[in-house]
């Protein structure tokens, strides 16, 4: 497990040298775990270790499939969320103007003009002068919304 990523671990309570729960304590980033054991007395405690399921031996095949299906379903949901959710970008940024902090919405910013070590920001409401360079301004703005012309 230290050399290859593991998606799912079937683990027994009764093992040589340490029990399965003790082994889980040694893992910094444990994979999904299904405990398969004859020891029902550890079932409640096992959920402190975020186990996916607890199977009592002898395990019926239908019960085994149900436990594995929990892992597969959870993995598919995680992947769907990871892939389909857009990464949120801040819709505004903050600048300091005359000692006060001002929040500017991206949609309100029309353009910025370099003014030495300052930038003039033209918005739909007014013009701001702030102690930023154009490079610093570019770093604060999403590249897909703003065009830089040198």
Automatic annotation (TrEMBL):
Entries under PANTHER family matching the protein: STAGE 0 SPORULATION PROTEIN A HOMOLOG, TRANSCRIPTIONAL REGULATOR-RELATED
Q: What is this protein called?
A: LytR/AlgR family response regulator transcription factor
| Gene3D superfamilies reported in the protein's UniProt record | 3.40.50.2300, LytTr DNA-binding domain (2.40.50.1020)
Kindly list the positions at which 4-aspartylphosphate occurs in this protein. 12
Please, which domain of life does this record's source organism belong to? Bacteria
**Domain Response regulatory, which positions?**
1-72
Q: Which UniProt keywords apply?
A: Phosphoprotein
**Species of origin:** Spirosoma flavum
Positions the record marks as coiled coil are none
